Each structure stands twice: as C-alpha cells, then as structure tokens.
C-alpha cells in the first residue's frame, strides 16, 4: 500500500497539505475524471472511468491559485458518485495525453492505485499499432535463457494450474513467438537485448521486471520501440519487492485468466499494485479473453477437412459439456464451440482453460497433417502495355522502350491471362488467427534493368490474392527472362520464369504470332503455405541463376531491400576452391594432427583469399547501395536456391574477414571459437592483411545455410524437394534409429566396409543393409525402409548421361526415383552422398546433379561434398561424419541446420578438414532424434 511519501502532492499546491491521504487521492481522481466513456469490445459494452491529464489541467485552471479546501473536496464527491455509478470500478488513464509537462504517468498511477481511490482495475490506454493478436492456449511463456533460469520459470511446469495451461521456453530463433515475454532489467536493457537479436520476436504481452523509480517521459520512447519490435499489445512494468517470486505471480496470473477474468482485472491479483504500471491496447483485452480464444479456435476447427483425425483426449469434451466425439468431423466441434462460446464454464482451472488448451494442441497437430493434401492455387498474372488510350492487354511479347504493367497474383486456375504451369500447393491458409498473409515479391530481369522491382502480395485464406503490380520498361531487343520470386520471412517459396521476346524500339508485332507468354515455375521450395508461421525466420536469401545471354547472377533480399550481383568470374574461385579441397582428400595425413599446424594454416589462408574475392563481388560492392547486402553480410541464417545445377557457387567458402597476410598462422583461439561458435572480440581480424586466419570467417562455419537446387531435366522439373512435405510441428523429426543402407564404389577397399558398418551401427542404432547391385537396391528399400543412406559411389558422365557405379555395377542416375529412396512418406530418409567426383564443382552441370536426383526421389536431406573424397578414405570419412552428426544431435535440441554447422565446427577444430567440404541440400528445420 502506498505510504504518504509515495504520493506526489505537488499537483494541488500548498492547499493540498490540509488534506489527508485518502481525501487527496480522491480529489486528484475527481479532477481528472471524464464521466463515462463507453467502449465496445468482445467482452461486451463496459463503462470505464476515463482519467485524462487534459481534464485535470482544465479543472486546475478553473480553480485558480490556492483554491480553498471545500472547493477541492467537491471533486472528491464527484469521484465518489462516479465510482458508485460504475459497475466494475475500471479506471483507464489516457497515456497519449501524458506529455513532457506534469503530471507524470508513473506518479498518477501511484495516486490512483491507492485503496482510497477504489479502482479495481487501473491501466493506461496505449495504442500499439504493430500488435500481434495471436493469443492461444496453452499460453507460451518465454524469456531469455539467463532470465529463464534466474527467475526459475520452469517451476511453472510443475505447479497447478500452469502445469496444464502453459508452455515455458527460452527465447530463441526457433521459439520466437509467445503470449507472455518476461524481461528482467530496465526498459533500456530490455530494448537493447531485443534489438541485439538477429531475428524478429512476436509477443502478445511483455512483463518487465524493472525499477519503477522513473519518469514515464524518460522511458516512453523506449517503450514505444519495444512494443513495436516485439509486436506486443501491452506491457506491465513491475518493481519486484523483497522476497517476490516471478513464477509464483505468473502462476497467479494464469489462474485468473483461466477463470476468464478480463486481462486488466487479472493483473491486479497477480502483481503488487503499489509497484506496478500497466499499459495496454484495448484490442489485447479482447484477444486475451477465453471466450474470444474459444471463438477463434472454433473457426479454425471449422476450416479443417472433415476427414482429418482430431486426436483429442477423451476427458476434454466433458470439461465444458461439449457433445463432440471422434466419430464426428472437427468442423462439428468448431461449430459447437462457436455456438456455445457464452455457455462454456470457467469456474475451475480444469474446465474451460484446460479444455481449450487440449483442443488447441489437437487442432495444430491436425493442421500439420492436412498440409499434405491441399488443393492448388496458381501464381498468375496479367500484362498490359501502357498506351495513351489506357492499358492494352499484351499476350505476345514486348517492345523496347514501351512501359508495361504486370499484375501478379495467386488464385484458382483460369483467372489470369498467364498462369504458372505448377500450382502453389495449398488451400487452407491459417497463419494462427489471421485471415491473410503478406508475401514479398520480386520481379527480376538483369539484362533489362539493374535493380529488382519489389512488391507485396496479400494472400487470403481462400480465393484470389490482391494484385502485386510491377511497372517495367524493356531496354534491349532479344530474349526476355523475367523471374518472379515469392518469399516470406527470409525464405524463398516459389520462383517462376516469364520468358518472352523483346522487339527493337519502334517495331511492332504486326501479324506475327510468337510463342505465347507464360509463367514456368522453376522452384517450389515450400509445399505448404498453410504452415508458414511454424517455420523459423531466416535473415536473408540468395537465388543463383543465369541471364538469357549466359551471365551468372545472384539476386539477394532481406527484410527490406534487394539487389542483383554479377557472379561472372566466380568460376575461377569455384575451380580453385575445389582444387584446394581435393588436395585435402589426397593428403589427409598432412592436415591431421592439429588445427594450428602449418599445413592447415596454409590451406585456410588459400581458401580465405579465394573466399574473400567472392565476398567482395557478392557483398562488399553492394553494401552502400542496398540494405539487403548488409542483411546478407550480417545474416546468421541464410537460404540459397540455385535455379540451375550449374548455377551453384560454393558460398560456404565466402570469407567475410579481411584476407590474411602471406604465411599467416591460424588464430590461436580458433579451436575455442569453433566449439563455442564465437570469436573473442580481441582477436577478430579487422585490418587487411590480417595477422592470422580465422575459420569462423567462412560462411559455412559461421552461418546456418539451407540449400535447394532446381534441375529442369528431372522428371518433376518444377519441384525442388519432391513431395516429402515440410518439417512442421508434429512432423519435423528424422529418426536416428532404424535400418541404414550402405553402398560403395569398387574403389572402396573391402576392409573399409566393415569399419563403416560398425560406425553406423554404433551411431544410428540399427541394422545395416549393404547393397552391391542396383537390382538389389530397390527391394532393400521397399522391405527394410532405411532411414539413412550412406552412399560412396563413383560418378561418371554429365547431364542426362550421368551415372553412378556401386561395386562395379553402373546405372544412369536419371533412373533413380522415389522407389529407390523413400518407402515411407512420413519418414523421409537422410542421404549421405560421398564419392569420387559426385559433386565436382569444377564441372558445370555435374555439381549437384546427383543431389537433385536424390532430393526429387523424396530424400528429406542430402549431404554432399564440394570436392572429391577418394574411395580409400571415403568410408573412413563417412563413418566419422555419421558418428559426429549423431553425437551432436543427441546432445542438441537444435534443428538440423544448427547441428550440421556445429558438426563442421568441431570437426575442423579437430583438424578433420574434409568436413569443410560438407554441404546439405534440403530443409534446415528438421530435428534429428
């Protein structure tokens, strides 16, 4: 309870000194109150006492200097009447009116929270324009790892009722969304920590444990930015008293909310009123109510297909007297929830709150399963020439110097003049509670214009999206290859090519009938758009391709900007890097025995020189021209999509630090840095030439890289990943237990087979099936259903004649389909593909061709190498990599991309330099368990 010293008595001058605390509080309350303001919300029309600094200013001006005590006490009486007429004693402060002059919001809160004021709820109205209204049960409560441990928030998982109603997690890129984010420290410190993250955070509400001996005006701008950065709908600033327990008070909040208490009323019993300040957007109050949660959950259930199985505990429907059984479709449960939302019981924690939590979990699991059977919509477009008479539809081609309008959209087939040949495989899009999702779109044609054209596409749950309009002018006659790139949260979803011919300026098509305009899908990296919000946000992406004239280019985009970079000349670095790494394969003993030895220093220095040339061409030259270049440089999570197999560049060897001097040693802290993933600030190279070479300067060791490659000559030309589906919640685990298939070239000695089998059995916990003939391969896959393939073949030929040899038996690679790889669609396998020239980056058209074949055959992940691994050593290298991958996965809770990066780091730290060659193709979001 506030003491006299806690109350600011400067508002009323010396006259107020004759008033006791109770009277003073009530007078101040009466001076600032604006009679009832009626607010409509999901919990019904509620009257609220609105307290405004402007009203206080008006009344004080009317009273003049040193008003007599009776005049002041009239305001006490007015407040008492207003409070008596209010049926809920809810008081709302108008935060926007608390300007630089007195009174201060913190001081007024201290006054109006005094028991004499009689407010049962007190909060400041705060508009949060960027708020995320996705509020679900079970509630996710998150904190930074150190706060999570220090505040003992994990105890919520063993305490009633939170143990049934919440999930507790550390705030990471993987888990970046929550209902409640707990932050310990000052507002400035909380903002700094959030801004230091390389990924976006989405929180419904923030709980800041911080001192309240502050002025609101000193922190107001920081609070605004913190709310915007986290998309939160409000926050509470709580100054914890001595002996206060965060987890116990959060548990109290959960208990109040489980009884469907309005959010502002639930905050009172949860946190000490005398040391709390709550600023809330009214829309958050609507979103938090369990009746609103139930209504939205009902809508989501109604959108599930009738044939989907809803795995709901038998005790759930009785908790709230629902008449649903598993014999009925989920839509029936959804309809009943919506119809009876006002009748649900929240008297006990085990009733409505627990039931909605259990139903929500089941609904999310069911939605993940439905993503495999979605009805298609297509990327489409309309093109028109912009003439004096208005837009004129164009379906034949372009003329240089003429302006064109290109409207891009996603819709059911037949709505556009031009339609992509492959659909976007989705139908029921539900990004949590939203009815639409904003996708970003680029239109790129490097031969015709220098910079990408950028736009956004608003995609609804059903039907046609809004148009994304591009205005462009072809500049050169000849071939036109405009690439449409659709992406979301730093990851490419689909790319399509608009191919046409451009006539010289002044010429017209006349009666000529060239090839009809159309969109040809190159790559569909995401099978389902309905589960996008379950995917990790990446920082940046790169699309590698060629222009019609054969020039090698890269398009990159981050959160905001985009740019096109020329990669002409990168072939030299590609071949040099390949040669350096192949030398490692021939001389493994030279590089073994310690990371800091001279041979490793020379190798890393040579690789750094080649990699720094790539860095300059791809990043440094564009830093001052595009924010996307800065995003690419600073990104920790990077997606790379190659539009053609020969568009591959070994970007894992881009070196972002200054190149080392001749004969420079490996940094003395390299082993420690590799294992921790961080360079000590004191030794990070800053000047050129650098005094040492640092392994973490290479992108393949510092970034999580997700690679996809498109091969137009494969049977399913438009697919990048085949039909394996995406790793989404409930279907995102690749098992470390099961049968492994191994096959190897005749160049692999017999003795090495035994070593490899032993290593796999130990690491992968299962039987090993050795295949020595292609005729035995398919039956083995169909009967034993392997979860891991370790293949050490010899590759020969190129393009469509590419072949693989195992034990002297040769087969054309193009003949490998899913019957050779994936026997269980719900458990797609991992393929480790090592061998002589399997992924020889020095041969355009050969590198990644084999990768694409196994990906098209429904492998979840394919691990290859950027250089030759000799037959004599391939088995040994494969065994060590499998063991490391398994050991790291068993100790880690990270996704595959993070696990692979750590495997490579630890292997290099132990001077297994061939690990630097390892690259993975497929989704980085799989878990290994």
Give the SSE map.
Elements: H1 21-32, E1 33-39, E2 46-51, H2 53-63, H3 69-85, E3 90-94, H4 105-112, E4 121-125, E5 139-143, H5 145-150, H6 162-165, E6 166-170, E7 177-184, H7 187-196, E8 202-209, H8 216-230, E9 234-238, H9 246-258, H10 263-270, E10 276-280, H11 282-288, H12 290-302, H13 316-319, H14 330-339, H15 352-370, E11 378-387, E12 390-393, E13 398-399, E14 404-411, E15 418-419, E16 436-444, E17 453-460, E18 468-472, E19 478-488, E20 491-503, E21 518-524, E22 540-546, E23 552-557, E24 562-566, H16 570-586, H17 588-591, H18 598-618, H19 627-634, E25 637-642, H20 670-676, H21 699-702, E26 704-709, E27 733-734, E28 740-744, H22 750-764, E29 768-770, H23 774-784, E30 788-792, E31 794-796, E32 803-806, E33 809-812, E34 830-833, H24 849-856, E35 861-865, H25 871-891, H26 896-909, E36 918-922, E37 927-928
Parallel strand pairs: 2-3, 3-4, 4-10, 5-6, 5-7, 7-8, 8-9, 13-20, 22-25, 25-26, 27-37, 28-29, 28-30, 30-34, 34-35
Antiparallel strand pairs: 1-2, 9-10, 11-12, 11-14, 11-15, 14-18, 16-17, 16-19, 19-20, 20-21, 22-23, 23-24, 31-32, 32-33, 35-36
Folded structure, characterized:
The chain is α/β, with parallel strands linked by helices and 929 residues long. It folds into six domains: 4-122, no CATH class; 139-282, Rossmann fold (3-Layer(aba) Sandwich); 290-373, no CATH class; 378-535, Immunoglobulin-like; 568-626 and 649-698, no CATH class; 725-928, Rossmann fold (3-Layer(aba) Sandwich), CATH 3.40.50. It has a ten-stranded mixed beta sheet. Strands 13, 16, 17, 19, 20 and 21 form a six-stranded mixed beta sheet that branches. A six-stranded mixed beta sheet has the order 29-28-30-34-35-36, sandwiched between helices. α20 (670-676) runs antiparallel to α26. It is globular, with a radius of gyration of 32 Å.
């Amino acid at each position: 309870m506030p003491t006299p010293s806690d109350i600011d008595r400067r508002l009323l001058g010396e006259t107020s000194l004759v008033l006791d605390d109770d009277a003073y509080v009530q007078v101040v309350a009466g001076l600032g109150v604006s009679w009832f303001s009626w607010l409509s919300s999901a919990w019904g029309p509620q009257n609220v006492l609105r307290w405004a600094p402007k009203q206080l200013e008006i009344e004080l001006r009317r009273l003049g200097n040193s008003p007599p005590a009776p005049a002041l006490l009239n305001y006490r009486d007015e407040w008492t009447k207003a409070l008596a007429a209010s049926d809920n004693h809810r008081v709302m402060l108008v935060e926007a009116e608390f300007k630089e002059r007195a009174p201060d919001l913190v001081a007024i809160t201290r006054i109006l929270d005094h028991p004499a004021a009689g407010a049962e709820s007190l909060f400041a109205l705060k508009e949060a324009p960027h708020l995320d209204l996705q509020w679900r049960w079970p509630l996710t409560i998150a904190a930074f790892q150190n706060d999570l441990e220090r505040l003992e928030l994990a105890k919520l998982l063993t305490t009633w009722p939170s143990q049934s109603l919440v999930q507790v997690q550390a705030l990471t890129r993987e888990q970046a969304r929550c209902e409640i984010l707990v932050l310990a420290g000052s507002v400035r410190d909380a903002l700094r920590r959030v801004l230091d993250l390389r990924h976006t955070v989405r929180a419904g509400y923030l709980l800041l444990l911080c001192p309240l001996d502050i002025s609101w005006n000193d922190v107001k701008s920081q609070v605004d930015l913190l709310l915007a950065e986290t998309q939160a709908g409000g926050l509470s600033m709580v100054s914890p008293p001595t002996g206060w327990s965060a987890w116990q008070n959060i548990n109290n909040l959960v208990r109040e909310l489980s009884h469907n208490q309005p959010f502002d009323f639930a905050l009172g019993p949860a946190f000490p009123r005398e040391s709390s300040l709550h600023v809330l957007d009214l829309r958050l109050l609507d979103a938090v109510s369990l009746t609103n949660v139930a209504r939205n959950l009902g809508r989501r259930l109604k959108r599930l297909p009738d044939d989907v199985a809803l795995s709901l505990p038998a005790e759930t429907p009785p908790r709230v007297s629902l008449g649903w059984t598993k014999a009925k479709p989920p839509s029936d449960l959804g309809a009943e929830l919506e119809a009876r939302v006002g009748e649900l019981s929240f008297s006990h924690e085990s009733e409505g709150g627990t039931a909605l939590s259990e139903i929500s979990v089941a609904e999310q699991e069911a939605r993940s399963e439905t993503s495999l059977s979605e009805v298609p919509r297509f990327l489409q477009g309309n093109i028109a020439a912009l003439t004096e008479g208005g837009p004129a539809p164009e379906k034949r081609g372009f003329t240089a110097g003429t302006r064109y309008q290109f409207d891009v959209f996603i819709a059911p087939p037949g709505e556009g003049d031009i339609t992509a040949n492959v659909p976007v495989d989705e139908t029921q899009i539900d990004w949590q509670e939203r009815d639409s999702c904003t996708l970003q779109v680029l239109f790129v044609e490097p031969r015709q214009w220098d910079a990408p054209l950028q736009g956004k596409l608003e995609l609804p749950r059903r039907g046609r999206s809004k148009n994304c309009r591009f205005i462009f002018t072809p500049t050169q006659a000849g071939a036109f290859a405009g690439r449409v790139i659709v992406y979301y949260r730093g990851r490419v979803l689909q790319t399509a090519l608009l191919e046409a011919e451009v006539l010289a300026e002044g010429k017209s098509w006349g009666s000529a009938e060239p090839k009809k305009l159309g969109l040809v899908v190159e790559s569909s990296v995401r099978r389902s758009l309905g589960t996008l919000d379950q995917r990790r946000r990446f920082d940046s992406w790169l699309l590698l391709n060629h222009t019609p004239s054969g020039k090698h280019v890269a398009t990159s985009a981050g959160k905001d900007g985009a740019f096109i970079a020329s990669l002409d000349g990168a072939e030299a670095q590609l071949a040099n890097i390949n040669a350096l790494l192949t030398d490692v394969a021939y001389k493994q003993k030279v590089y073994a025995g310690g990371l800091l030895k001279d041979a490793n220093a020379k190798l890393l220095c040579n690789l750094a020189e080649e990699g720094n040339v790539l860095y300059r061409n791809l990043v440094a030259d564009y830093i001052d021209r595009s924010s996307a270049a800065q995003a690419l440089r600073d990104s920790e999570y990077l997606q790379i999509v190659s539009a053609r197999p020969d568009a591959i560049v070994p970007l894992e060897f881009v070196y972002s630090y200054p190149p080392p001097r001749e004969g420079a040693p490996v940094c003395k802290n390299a082993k420690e840095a590799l294992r921790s993933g961080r360079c000590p600030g004191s030794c990070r190279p800053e000047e050129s030439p650098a005094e040492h070479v640092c392994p973490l300067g290479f992108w393949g060791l510092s970034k999580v890289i997700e690679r996809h490659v498109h091969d137009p000559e494969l049977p399913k030309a438009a697919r990048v990943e085949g039909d394996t589906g995406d790793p989404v919640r409930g279907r995102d685990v690749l098992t470390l237990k099961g049968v492994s298939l191994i096959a190897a070239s005749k160049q692999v000695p017999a003795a090495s087979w035994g070593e490899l089998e032993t290593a796999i059995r130990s690491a992968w916990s299962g039987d090993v099936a050795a295949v020595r003939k292609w005729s035995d391969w398919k039956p083995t896959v169909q009967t034993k259903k392997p979860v891991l393939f370790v293949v050490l073949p010899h590759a020969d030929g190129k393009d469509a004649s590419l072949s693989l040899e195992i034990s002297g038996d040769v087969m054309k690679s193009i003949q490998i389909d899913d019957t050779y790889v994936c026997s269980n669609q719900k458990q797609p396998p991992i393929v480790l593909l090592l061998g002589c020239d399997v992924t020889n980056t020095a041969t355009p058209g050969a590198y990644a061709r084999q990768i694409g074949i196994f990906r098209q055959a429904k492998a979840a992940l394919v691990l290859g190498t950027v250089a030759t691994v000799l037959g004599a050593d391939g088995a040994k290298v494969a065994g060590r990599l499998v063991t490391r991958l398994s050991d790291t996965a068993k100790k880690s809770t990270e996704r595959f991309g993070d696990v692979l990066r750590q495997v490579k780091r630890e292997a290099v730290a132990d001077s297994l330099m061939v690990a630097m060659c390892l690259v993975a193709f497929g989704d980085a979001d799989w878990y290994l368990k």
